[in-house]
Amino acid sequence: MAKPGAVLAICSAAALLLASCQSDKSRWTDAQLHLTAEQSEGRKVFDTYCSSCHSAYTSKKLTGPPLTNLCHRRAMPSGMPPTDERISAVVMRGRGMMPAFESVLEPSDLQALLAYLHTL
Length: 120
Ligand code: HEC
Fold this sequence. Notes:
Order of helices and strands: HHHH
Bound molecules: heme C
Radius of gyration: 18 Å
Distance between the termini: 45 Å
Structural class: mainly alpha
CATH architecture of the domain at 35-117: Orthogonal Bundle
């Protein structure tokens, strides 16, 4: 007969495993994603203004291309390198079907957004 403590340990380990296996990372909490305060601010900006057209954690194409691994790629879909300058320019001025966010985002929002995009 297993001890109650052992049962509890096994159950919480299973729960943890289940949580970390949950494939849809967009449902993870900021803590599960290990986001800093600034990155979690940026995540809010992303969820408000970007997530309708871009997936962050899956390769699913919405209106815009998925932004998984954005800052770790050699190039963005356009072929431009994923530097903060280029990403900021696309976000602030828009590109093709993507609207400009110049009049919507404060500089601090943009900084937080960039910090979050680096975690993808
Ligand atoms: C209405 C839909 C829409 C919204 C909202 C939107 N985008 Fe886009 N985004 C697009 C489309 C479409 C493209 C492809 C543009 C092209 O290359 O013609 C794109 C391209 C991009 C690219 C790739 C640029 C490149 O050089 O290839 C980045 C990065 C990006 N978006 C980031 C964002 C961020 C960050 C936000 C939120 C602030 C955002 N987008 C909001 C539709 C959108």
